[in-house]
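Posted in: Structural Biology > Protein-Ligand Complexes

Title: Requesting predicted complex, zinc ion in pocket

I'd be grateful if someone could produce the 3D structure tokens for the following input. Sequence and ligand are given below.
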Amino acid sequence: MKEIPTQRAESFYRPSPALPAGAWDRVPPAERVWRWYENTAQRRLTPPAGVLLGERIYARINHNRWVADCVCGSAQIVTPTDPRFACPECGYGWVQITFPANPEAAEAEVSARAPHERNWWHADDKAWDRPGPPAPEPEKEPGRGPADPTPEEPAPEEPKPEEPAGAGPKGSLSR
Ligand SMILES: [Zn+2]
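-- Reply #1 --
Done. Output follows.
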């Protein structure tokens, strides 16, 4: 299934059929989501002017798309050719996106799978939905967010004694 490429911002955020195919060719790839969202929302939207220094988010492959998650819970398709992020939903941005050193290698790593099973996370990404080793769901203390590390606890073993045959309730003796 290697002939199905992983979606990037350039291939996903394309002008509507009413526009010329190359209408957004001069728009930087990270800003095309703003054009696309503007068209969807049918109102003018302006990307943030500044840059949030020190803020970084991770890119991941989700269902065969390079995706970055916003702090507001929204997400968008991103691209390693222009690794910046600004959210047309809440206005967060611009922030730098951390891609792997070799995005093509990450794409190749999942390329044998069907598109909906192509998921990949950066080694340092602590995303809430990243599959880890199977562990029981720990009891969460109030106020603890998903960013907290998951403590590793051994699975509690509850012995389930088999009901001995014939040991029914009292008074049920057979005659
Ligand atoms: Zn947002």
